[in-house]
């Protein structure tokens, strides 16, 4: 195979969940041999971490009926079923149009879901205030409902290319209630992401139709389903294909923008992807969030367990705060780190690997198999909530253990 063919094959693999898991496990293996440069692994603390997550699960879901981790949970912040209320207004729409609208909502909201910072708040009409992921979800929901992402006043609950590519910063800032006293991290990055999303919708009519609309991606997936089933990896591959060009240019290989893929000196691989560690956090978060709309429309989603845990600051915070990993540099927590810094890449990779181990420990404790307790439920029940809980116990405001400079497109 020539160099271009080798690079293309390596890129195709790097853009999969399988590659996320295998590279994470490779670095985990080095951690077990105390051979990583930035973190020390404490295997003896795994049982206590499993117990802590289990306690969190029992508090949140005492009947162990845990839904999948997805953006839809955040739309119910404060016990208010916002999507259910909107869905009642859509009773006249068919199943497929409801699915398209849910795609429109989920994609725009997930792409606005990078870390907000400790200072930002969103006050919902009626007076309830929300922060972080819930605040971003509620804010983006109200923007969507107001027709912010639609260019057609007669069809406000759309997200289309014309509206997204021309959205201005003042409208986004207004919708997110951003002021000097209420700053949101990465506002420029979020706006750029939405602009690029609009461009991607226009450039790929085979995925997004004409005129380009996010919701038309449902029709593409439905058309490719076999026996009324679509695999989670096929959903992820479609998202990576359709949205791959929207991510800020960081690393590229063979002329392809790799997105949420970073360098680590110990990530060795015998092809052109040597040195790269993929995560695809937002793409996988989006994949998890599209499962419910697809299944509500009458299709089955298979192979969900092929997706990985999400390498973000709540799950990542859990593995540090529970003592599963310790920074070799005691001053790491006092530094401001970029997403691509090697300690951050290492932390995220160990997070992905340790989420699998925590899930295995939970299944053993509960005498449940993968089908009964999939990783998607472990995340929801679960590790994400436990990461937030332990952060609140340890630090004022519940900040994560490491400080990441967010551009609004990863964390």
How would you summarize the topology of this molecule?
Layout: H1 3-14, H2 17-32, E1 39-41, H3 46-60, H4 71-74, H5 82-88, H6 95-111, E2 121-123, E3 129-131, H7 132-145, H8 161-166, H9 169-175, H10 187-203, H11 205-208, H12 216-224, E4 229-231, H13 232-243, E5 252-253, E6 256-257, E7 261-263, E8 276-278, H14 281-296, E9 300-302, H15 313-321, E10 325-327, E11 336-338, H16 342-366, H17 375-394, E12 403-405
Parallel strand pairs: 4-9, 11-12
Antiparallel strand pairs: 1-10, 2-3, 5-6, 7-8
- Number of DSSP helical runs: 17
State the major sheet: 2 strands, antiparallel
Bin the strand percentage.
5-15%
Low confidence ranges: none
- The count of DSSP E runs of length 2 or more, i.e. the number of strands, is 12
Q: Class by helix and strand content?
A: mainly alpha
Order of helices and strands: HHEHHHHEEHHHHHHEHEEEEHEHEEHHE
* Span between termini: 37 Å
Q: What's the helical proportion of residues?
A: 40-55%
Q: Which key terms come to mind for this protein?
A:
411 residues, mainly alpha, single chain, 17 helices, two-stranded antiparallel ribbon, 51% helix
Short description:
The strands form 6 sheets. The protein has a two-stranded antiparallel ribbon with strand order 1-10. A two-stranded antiparallel sheet has the order 2-3.
Question: Could you please describe the fold and organization of this structure?
Answer:
With 411 residues, the chain is mainly α. The protein has one domain. The protein contains 17 helices and twelve strands. The chain has helices at 3-14, 17-32, 46-60, 71-74, 82-88, 95-111, 132-145, 161-166, 169-175, 187-203, 205-208, 216-224, 232-243, 281-296, 313-321, 342-366, 375-394; strands spanning 39-41, 121-123, 129-131, 229-231, 252-253, 256-257, 261-263, 276-278, 300-302, 325-327, 336-338, 403-405. The chain has a two-stranded antiparallel ribbon with strand order 1-10. Strand 2 and strand 3 form a beta hairpin. Helix 6 crosses helix 12 (216-224) and helix 13 (232-243) crosses helix 14. The radius of gyration is 20 Å and the shape is globular. The two termini are 37 Å apart. The model has no long low-confidence stretch (mean pLDDT 94).
